[in-house]
């Protein structure tokens, strides 16, 4: 989940590395470091706890000059966030930055200590540096040869870049389980864990594939497989502008991304949603024949993506009449699975690199699934590349750690898929057309709900002194309650839980008192009557009710302990997407008044590439 950037160039690369780290900071931010070597082999390593800006301050005091180097923002997995645990890690002349986990680090550490190696950090990464050093001492050879010989000894996941300060012209990059991309320039080349870091520098990229090892110099890039055989990888031109990382008129990326949802959904619909049908010809000419065979959907996902999968389960079953199961990827992969007949596995992930979802996808290939479909926001991601089929959510880059626009666009894609599968499974034409109409209206509906911004901002003040909150909903709005609770937890650090409203009396009612906010998602649907009983259950016990609704539910605003957040009209089928927006705004404003770091909440990172 950390960020890596490395460069080999003609000019001083200090600024390039620091700017790259700033662009990667959203991925992990507990500490940062860099190592730079000048033409004569003089190395400087600087590391510090906390944000990249601390590292920048440190570099300002030194006159750093160098043409080759590597840098890292860490998201600690082994060893506390501290300066000594920050990367790069070194073993005399070997420098390593690493993203991921070395599973057999303890065993390797013992072995290395027995050879006389001394460890200065608690990280798993340091074993890589010493292991490479040992191999170099024992067997000699170029950095690439040493890396090739060492990799079979390391178990786990590692995107890493290695440098030997005695030969300051070569970087070696290894991708096993964690993504790396090479940015190809003229007389200079770069490597990063995320294309975003390189956007201002180059527009040609090579995405390393699983097991690739690249040897990179100023003028040459050679890529090998794990056996040392040369492999060819495509050079991809990108037209993504590097301005995408600007916050524009907004104060935070999360706020910007909440407001981008109408356009993100429009983009996701373009070319796929005509007035009468869903066009998924991007999935191939025979896609209709394939989808017709699908009799069960198995969704695997984590976090927010899991919540969107949960919403879609209601849709797949009630609209397309196809049974659907949704499972957290980290559970799915370690369970004895009984695969249903003609089951399609759907891997849902924003980044397409989520370690557990990727592992679940890989596992599914050994099982009897009819095929796999990725729904992701990043085209060149591992999950997209390794799935049989993929549908991209066209949200654009999402930088706020708390997902917003990728949730609503995932749901948009899933709902289109529901119509597509439904149409092959006997769904009435009229129903198909009504859902299509509703999806097409969605960007407009969201624009309307965004006008409630000020109202929600005012309500957020009530949460300033709260430590707990409950979110309740029914049917396809129960997962929306889950998503609302997740957002509040993530960025405001208020303990929040979601319950299917009918479950209140089976335990959570015991928590209700006049300090407990209960957020109710109460759209106008056939479950509203039942939901009102649950509202009553909370009201009679003195709970603080915040009811998000778009019709008259028979209570008045500020009556009893009750605040009603009156929302505009929305079609029933798309209501779950619509109701997510005010909940995102609520978390945003609560986090704002609590002075939280909204875009980079503590202990979290954007793309979870470790298990
Ligand atoms: N496992 C390594 C560490 O704890 C790398 C973590 C990361 O991906 O940032 O230092």
From TrEMBL:
<keyword id="KW-0677">Repeat</keyword>
<feature type="active site" description="Nucleophile; for GATase activity">
    <location>
        <position position="2"/>
    </location>
</feature>
<dbReference type="InterPro" id="IPR035490">
    <property type="entry name" value="GlmS/FrlB_SIS"/>
</dbReference>
<keyword id="KW-0315">Glutamine amidotransferase</keyword>
<dbReference type="GO" id="GO:0005829">
    <property type="term" value="C:cytosol"/>
</dbReference>
<feature type="active site" description="For Fru-6P isomerization activity">
    <location>
        <position position="606"/>
    </location>
</feature>
<dbReference type="InterPro" id="IPR005855">
    <property type="entry name" value="GFAT"/>
</dbReference>
<dbReference type="GO" id="GO:0097367">
    <property type="term" value="F:carbohydrate derivative binding"/>
</dbReference>
<feature type="domain" description="SIS">
    <location>
        <begin position="287"/>
        <end position="427"/>
    </location>
</feature>
<dbReference type="InterPro" id="IPR035466">
    <property type="entry name" value="GlmS/AgaS_SIS"/>
</dbReference>
<dbReference type="InterPro" id="IPR029055">
    <property type="entry name" value="Ntn_hydrolases_N"/>
</dbReference>
<keyword id="KW-0032">Aminotransferase</keyword>
<keyword id="KW-0808">Transferase</keyword>
<dbReference type="InterPro" id="IPR001347">
    <property type="entry name" value="SIS_dom"/>
</dbReference>
<keyword id="KW-0963">Cytoplasm</keyword>
<dbReference type="GO" id="GO:0006002">
    <property type="term" value="P:fructose 6-phosphate metabolic process"/>
</dbReference>
<comment type="function">
    <text>Catalyzes the first step in hexosamine metabolism, converting fructose-6P into glucosamine-6P using glutamine as a nitrogen source.</text>
</comment>
<dbReference type="Pfam" id="PF13522">
    <property type="entry name" value="GATase_6"/>
</dbReference>
<dbReference type="InterPro" id="IPR046348">
    <property type="entry name" value="SIS_dom_sf"/>
</dbReference>
<dbReference type="Pfam" id="PF01380">
    <property type="entry name" value="SIS"/>
</dbReference>
<protein>
    <recommendedName>
        <fullName>Glutamine--fructose-6-phosphate aminotransferase [isomerizing]</fullName>
        <ecNumber>2.6.1.16</ecNumber>
    </recommendedName>
</protein>
<dbReference type="InterPro" id="IPR047084">
    <property type="entry name" value="GFAT_N"/>
</dbReference>
<feature type="domain" description="Glutamine amidotransferase type-2">
    <location>
        <begin position="2"/>
        <end position="219"/>
    </location>
</feature>
<feature type="domain" description="SIS">
    <location>
        <begin position="459"/>
        <end position="601"/>
    </location>
</feature>
<dbReference type="GO" id="GO:0006487">
    <property type="term" value="P:protein N-linked glycosylation"/>
</dbReference>
<dbReference type="InterPro" id="IPR017932">
    <property type="entry name" value="GATase_2_dom"/>
</dbReference>
<dbReference type="GO" id="GO:0004360">
    <property type="term" value="F:glutamine-fructose-6-phosphate transaminase (isomerizing) activity"/>
</dbReference>
<comment type="subunit">
    <text>Homodimer.</text>
</comment>
<dbReference type="GO" id="GO:0005975">
    <property type="term" value="P:carbohydrate metabolic process"/>
</dbReference>
<dbReference type="GO" id="GO:0006047">
    <property type="term" value="P:UDP-N-acetylglucosamine metabolic process"/>
</dbReference>
């Amino acid at each position: 989940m950390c960020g890596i950037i490395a460069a080999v160039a003609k000019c001083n690369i200090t600024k390039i590395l620091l700017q790259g780290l700033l662009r990667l900071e959203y991925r992990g931010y507990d500490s940062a470091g860099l190592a730079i070597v000048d033409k004569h082999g003089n190395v400087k390593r600087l590391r510090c706890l906390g944000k990249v800006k601390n590292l920048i301050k440190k570099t300002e005091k030194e006159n750093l000059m160098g043409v080759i180097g590597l840098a890292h923002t860490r998201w600690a997995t082994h060893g506390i966030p501290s300066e000594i645990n920050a990367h790069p890690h070194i073993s005399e002349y070997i420098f390593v930055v690493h993203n991921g986990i070395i599973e057999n680090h303890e065993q390797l550490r013992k072995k290395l200590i027995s050879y006389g190696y001394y460890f200065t950090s608690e990280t798993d990464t340091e074993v890589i540096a010493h292991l490479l050093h040992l191999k170099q001492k024992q067997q000699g050879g170029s950095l690439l040869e040493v890396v090739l010989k060492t990799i079979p000894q390391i178990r786990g996941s590692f995107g890493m870049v290695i440098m030997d300060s005695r030969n300051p012209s070569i970087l070696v990059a290894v991708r096993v389980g964690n993504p790396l991309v090479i940015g190809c320039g003229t007389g200079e080349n770069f490597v990063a864990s995320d294309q975003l870091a390189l956007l201002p520098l180059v527009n040609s990229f090579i995405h390393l594939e699983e097991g690739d090892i690249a040897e990179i110099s100023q003028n040459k890039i050679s890529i090998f497989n794990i056996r040392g055989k040369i492999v060819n990888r495509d050079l991809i031109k990108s037209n993504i502008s590097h301005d995408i990382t600007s916050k524009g008129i907004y104060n935070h990326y999360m706020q910007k991304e909440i407001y981008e949802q109408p356009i993100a959904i429009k983009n996701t619909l373009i070319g796929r949603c005509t007035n009468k049908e869903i066009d998924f010809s991007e999935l191939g000419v025979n896609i209709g024949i394939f989808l017709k065979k699908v009799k069960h959907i198995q969704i695997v996902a984590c976090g927010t993506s899991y919540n969107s999968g949960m919403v879609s389960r209601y849709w797949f079953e009630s609209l397309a009449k196809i049974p659907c199961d949704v499972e957290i990827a980290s559970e799915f992969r370690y369970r004895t699975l009984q695969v249903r007949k003609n089951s399609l596995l759907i891997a849902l992930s924003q980044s397409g690199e989520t370690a557990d979802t990727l592992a679940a996808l890989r596992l599914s290939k050994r099982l009897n699934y009819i095929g796999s479909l990725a729904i992701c926001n990043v085209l060149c991601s591992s999950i997209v590349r390794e799935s049989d089929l993929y549908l991209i959510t066209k949200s654009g880059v999402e930088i706020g750690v708390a997902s917003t626009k990728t949730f609503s666009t995932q749901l948009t894609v899933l709902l289109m898929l529901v119509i597509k599968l439904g149409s092959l499974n006997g769904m009435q034409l009229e129903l198909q057309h009504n859902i299509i109409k509703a999806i097409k209206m969605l960007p407009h509906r969201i624009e309307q709900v965004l006008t409630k911004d000020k109202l929600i901002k005012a309500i957020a003040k009530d949460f300033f002194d709260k430590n707990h909150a409950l979110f309740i909903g029914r049917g396809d709005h129960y997962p929306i309650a889950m998503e609302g609770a997740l957002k509040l937890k993530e960025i405001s650090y208020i303990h929040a839980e979601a319950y299917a409203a009918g479950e209140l009396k089976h335990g959570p009612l015991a928590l209700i008192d006049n300090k407990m906010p209960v957020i109710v998602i109460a759209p106008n649907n056939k479950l509203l009557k039942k939901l009102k009983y649950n509202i009553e259950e909370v009201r009679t016990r003195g709970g603080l009710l915040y009811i998000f609704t778009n019709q008259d539910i028979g209570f008045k605003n500020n009556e009893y302990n009750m605040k009603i957040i009156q929302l505009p009209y929305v079609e029933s089928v798309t209501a779950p997407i619509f109701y997510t927006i005010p909940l995102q705004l609520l978390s945003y404003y609560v986090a704002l008044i609590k002075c939280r770091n909204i875009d980079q909440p503590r202990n979290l990172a954007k793309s979870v590439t470790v298990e």
